[in-house]
Design goal:
The protein has two domains: 8-230, UDP-N-acetylmuramoyl-L-alanine:D-glutamate ligase (3-Layer(aba) Sandwich); 317-452, Mur ligase, C-terminal domain (Protein-Tyrosine Phosphatase, Chain A, Alpha-Beta Complex), CATH 3.90.190. Helices cover 39% and strands 19% of the residues. It is built from 16 helices and 17 strands. It has an eight-stranded mixed β-sheet with strand order 4-3-2-5-1-6-7-8, with helices on both faces. The chain is globular.
Amino acid sequence: MSDRILTKEETQEFLKEREKLGSVPGLDSIRELMQELGNVQERLSVIHVAGTNGKGSVCAMISSILQEAGYRVGMYTSPAVFERREQYQVNGQPVSEQEFAELMTDIKKACDRMEERGVYPTLFEVETAAAFLYFYRRRCQAVLLETGMGGAMDATNIIRKPSVSVLTSISMDHMKFLGNSIEEIARQKAGIIKENSFAAAVRPRQEQVRKVLEEICQKKHTELVYAEKEKAEDVHVESGVSFDKEKEQTEDRAQNFLCFSYGDYGKLRLSMTGAYQTENSICAIKAIELLRKQGWKITNEQVKKGLEQARWEGRFSRLCREPLVVMDGAHNEDAAKKLRETLKMGFTNYKIIYIIGVLADKEYDKILKIMTPLAWKVFTVTPNHPRAFDGALLAERAEAYHSDVRFCGTVSEGLEQAFACAKSKTAGEKAMILAFGSLSYLGEIREIVRRNRL
């Protein structure tokens, strides 16, 4: 067989063919695929992260802390917000095009052999296998592994002995696949918890979810620790200077920080300023403490510095200072409530202009009801996604909750209209543009803002 590496076009064609297979829950196919690749996942130290909201943020925080402690850290997240290669990072750097092509070449060969036996790996199984293979080849000492959807039947759950299983907040989402009750969804998410291991979880607000987690951990003889945001004291937002080495200009380094005090760690500063990041950061700390229990060398100072330097684009990320432009991937009821909390905590003196785009299978009516009362003006768009909800229909729904709603035919038009409003005299000195909803269009938002410097 030829040793020729797939071209970029051939790689994309291979992945498109996988995408046509859709989503097939279960572990048989990924097990067979990883066997073809030498079961390299068995040689990785994995921190496995599941939940409804906050998975990516918690992964980014734990990764940043471990890097501060001197570990080589791999991180696999999904879906890609901006570019496919960003899903595979080692110490914050995405896989190169050459390395990605090499990975896909080897995985395609494995898939070809499987197809001769009538087994067809899906896109997510291929992407997950690529992550395991890449982190093994890069000799990562720790791997942050985010589930795609659910947990028990997710392809990432091929991991037999994680260093820590982490559960972020759990709420209603993906009901078509995970179940119609919060208990069913919690049971699916908690499927990543393994026998005789360690688990850290954001303390669930719902008693039913707590019972599920505690029952599973008891049965599996797994130590469970909760992250409780109530133990954070003096939570506030303050201005400061970023110590991000990649940002040299003083103007770019000036930013807001989410600050609070927490136990022996004292005052913590987070560059990720969404109010919901308080519980996410405490969850990351609890996971780190469970790693320490197993002999990992991580100091409190490394935890503090790692949290301050952690970045996760698409989660209340600032794109522009004048006017202030922020994007957030809030796409379900729970995430919308947390985004609203952030706005109430630090942005009540702004006239806020919304750009909203959602997918058709999301709870858009609930999201609109929660979010629109805080808006000055609302623009709706249609994301470029097969499951996108028509922005014109979204505008009609939004009019039930807000008097100033307009549909824009393109994302670019939505941004132009929002910027025009933000710069108008009626906006005054404090105008803010907030783009939120589906992650599928936030990449386009970012590129338009950066390209045009609107």
